[in-house]
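Notes from the pairing session

We agreed to fold both candidates in a single pass and log them together. This is the raw record for the first candidate, unedited. Please don't reformat it; downstream parsing expects exactly this layout.

Candidate A
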Amino acid sequence: MEDPRVFFAAERTLLAWQRTGMMLMAFGFVVERAGLLLKVLGQSDPVHEFTLFWLGVLFMLLGVLTVAIAVFQFSQLLPSFSALERPAGYRVGISLGLNLLVALAGLMMLSVLIFLRF
């Protein structure tokens, strides 16, 4: 096939996985902060705080892994596209780089939360 729409469909899939990963990271952050909110309201015990913290960390880690795996899969797919399937002058590295930055930002957020906890 020499149709650039196939390449753009693959890139849209990469971006869809990026959105999914970002949503998982955001959800994990909200879950983790819910434990803090319950503590401030005085309606929490150590078991709930512990559970919500690690559940939030798990969701955030899952989001980071989702973005990282999407980058890996897309980079593995790139060599299969011919020069005719890629638009001339189109920079593929930008989308891969931005996705890696999103994964790195998620890891940084995760490490800060863990550092502040302990």
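Candidate B (folded immediately after A)
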Amino acid sequence: MLIRYFAAARAAAGTPQENLEVPDGASVAQIAELLVARHPALRPLLPRCGYLLDEVAVRDTAAPATGAVLDVLPPFAGG
């Protein structure tokens, strides 16, 4: 699975994107746990993030298909 990080999530992960081996049927919440294990600096940020799975907003229970793209979107400020 391709994980793409944006804004503060990119800074915390130290990379704009990475490929991650994800167990079949893993939920977005379980994937977030895998991301924290790889990048501990994401721990305080991920609970506030939104997620897009193949460009569709999802909650933590969604289970991505093989080859999916998961975008990690921290809260944005602006006007």
